[in-house]
């Protein structure tokens, strides 16, 4: 759990110290913009931007029942963030598994990627796809309504 919050915490602390430096040098108005940029980066890289993660066995059970894709991800992954943003509201229909919180999910990703924890790894109909095009994932979602 704490590993997922390291990057966002560092970003907020860097932004706060940068803004404090600007304020102490007599530029309080210019401190707001960099602080907002750092806070935005922290939010985007935090687990808050993703729908709630579930365990790998639960995700696989639900996927077998409803046919929706399972996405294995981790906080701080730019490719996972790209997928999440490009899916838009459709991201809520995907089963998300945070591999940093779920050892079974990390094991499933390693099994699909020759021992590497490469994310996002998407499982559709029992087949794994490593870092697929977001448009392809959206297409898979539209087929499984």
UniProtKB/TrEMBL annotation:
Q: Mark the transmembrane ranges.
A: 29-50
Q: Which Pfam families match?
A: Glutaredoxin
Could you list this entry's UniProt keywords, alphabetically sorted.
Answer: Membrane, Signal, Transmembrane, Transmembrane helix
Q: Secretion signal: which residues?
A: 1-19
Domain called Glutaredoxin: residue spans: 70-127
Spell out the SUPFAM superfamilies in the cross-references. Thioredoxin-like
Give the CDD domains listed for this entry.
TRX_superfamily
Q: Output this protein's name.
A: Glutaredoxin domain-containing protein
